[in-house]
Amino acid sequence: MDFQDLASRLGIDDEDFMELVELFVVTTLSDIEKIKKSVQKKNCHDASAAAHSIKGAAGNMGFNDMFELAKTMEMQAREESLDGFDAYITDLEAQVNSLNPT
Amino acid sequence: MGNKQPYTVLAVDDNLLNLKLIEKSLSKEGYRIFCADNGPKARAIALKEKPDLILLDIEMPGENGFDVIEKLKDDSATNSIPVLFLTGVSEVDAKLKGFELGAVDYITKPFHPLEVLARVRIHLKLSIATNSLIAGQASKLKQLTEAQVSMLPTPEDNPLARFGVFYKALEEAGGDFYDILNITDNITGYFLADFSGHDIKTSYLTASVKALLAQNCTPVYSPAESMKMINDVLAEILPDGKYLTACYMHLNRTTKKMTIINAGHPPVVCMPVDGDPYLIKTRGDILGMFKDAQFGIKTINVSKGDRFLIYSDGLVESEKMTWATGAEAMLPVYKTVVSISYKEIPQKLVDKLFGEKLPDDDLVILCAEV
Predict the structure, then answer these.
(1) How large is the average pLDDT for residues A97-101?
(2) Distance, CA of A82 to CA of B9 (rounded, Å)
(3) Is A53 left (phi over 0), alpha (psi -120 to 50) or beta?
(4) Smallest Cα–Cα separation from B282: which of B261, B301, B258?
(5) What pLDDT, on a 0 to 100 scale, did the predictor assign at position B147?
(6) pLDDT of B2 higher than 50
(7) Which of A69, B168, B204, B276 would you call most buried, defined as having the most Cβ atoms within 10 angstroms of its Cβ?
């Protein structure tokens, strides 16, 4: 992923962008934890809300793959289905961890 | 909003990343940003800091964006701060609801920081322009030392307004005043006011209010916005303790809607074409006392032939009763005049109530027909 390109698209400098990436990783991993717990409890509403949060943040950062994935999860949870969420979560976690600069 | 002070923006979003992104992109352009991740915190900051603009997320747990804007608009300390919604919802209904609640614009999520910046700039400019318009109008009127009392509009000169009126003013009194605003061929404004105190020349006040009505009662502004602008200018120009009670009826004969703005004035009487007369009661602040006053506002559907009566307190107030009880007590009297022409109703009411002996007070009664 080309962080410099994403930063310039957002109109902010690289340093600020990296700070936002770090915040994104922390908040998104926290949201993923919420989704995991929601799946265990079969709580579609909470799963949808957490996916909504990830979708918004990923969209604003320009992380399009994660945006699309979170959108799929949000819509599906809204329709009361958590099928395939384990695979989605694994995919999402891998994408978030690949961002982590540390 | 001084020259050297940075403009302040309150960003409200439950997602910390979004808040940080807004903060970073706006602060580097010289704005001072306050952040809140929930509704109650946002309202507390809005009240304390009075930001120049608010960016408000709709979907938040607990108090959502609609709840927050409703409370902000209900509070005179925060109701003039422009609010832009941040919304991931693309449905038209949600957007319309936002506008209805008083938002000036919305930004669809995911948002691009440069779009946020552009919209913040546009709305700050609009807000500055509105504020300077109010300041400009106030300063022009302050310089007005001698004004001519314009002729009170007559039913004959304003046939499209379809109204009848009775007007009696005491010579020296600040007293009562009315005006008719022909906003378009199908939209008419009816304004009636009663000034407090008698020590400012009637000509000065009526001319000022008449000029403000002409400037601000246009198709561009909603009735509530028109009254807000007029109030804010009057609050600037009237001496302390001077104010007016007023009623503004805005009738759109095409959409068949009547909007009534009441500023501490006795209630409007509706005389429906197929029913008994009733009072339209609303509570609201008086006009010109302080900025950002809250007026009673009511919009009702009307039918052709419905009549509306506005009047000064001289009609319903007496030594025996205040206008609050007087207004109720008059309902049976209104019922006796429903069959006559709207043009003759005001005079007929005066004849019935006072006969030959008119009260020692100003008196205006105006009847308009849809």
Answers:
(1) 79
(2) 39
(3) alpha
(4) B261
(5) 45
(6) no
(7) A69
Superfamily of domain B8-140: Response regulator (3.40.50.2300)
Mean pLDDT over B39-62 rounds to 94
Give the DSSP per-residue string, B7-20. Answer: PEEEEE-S-HHHHH
CA distance B127 to chain A (A): 25
CA dist B364 and B370 (Å) reads: 20
d(CA B284, CA B293): 8
Q: Which residue has the tokens 């949600």?
A: B94
Domain residue spans of chain B: 8-140, 159-369
pLDDT at position B325, please? Answer: 73
Per-residue 3-state assignment (H helix, E strand, C coil) for B67-102: HHHHHHHHCCCCCCCCEEEEECCCCHHHHHHHHHCC
- The CATH number corresponding to B159-369 among 3.40.1080.10, 2.30.110.10, 3.90.226.10, 3.60.40.10 equals 3.60.40.10
Q: Which of B12, B13, B21, B23 to substitute to test the interface with A, most A CBs within 10 Å?
A: B21
Structural domain contains residue A24: no
Domain hosting residue A60, numbered range:
1-7+44-102
> What is the total count of domains within chain A?
1
Nearest to B182 by CA among B150, B221, B219: B219
Measured CA to CA, the distance from residue B39 to residue B30 in angstroms comes to 25
Beta carbons within 10 angstroms of residue B362's beta carbon: 21
DSSP string, B107-168: EESSPPHHHHHHHHHHHHHHHHHHHHHHHHHHHHHHT--S-PPPPPP-TTT-GGG-EEEEEE
Q: What is the ipTM of this complex?
A: 0.84
Give tens-digit pLDDT for A61-96: 999 999 999 999 999 999 999 999 999 999 999 999
Q: How confident is the model at residue B201 (pLDDT cuts 50, 70, 90)?
A: low
Q: Which of residues 21-80 of A touch B (CB under 8 A)?
A: 23-24, 27, 49, 52-53, 55-61, 67
pLDDT: which is higher, B135 or B9: B9
Task: Note whether B20 contacts A: Cβ–Cβ < 8 A.
Answer: yes
Nearest to B339 by CA among B299, B293, B305: B305
In this structure, which amino acid lies at residue B247?
C
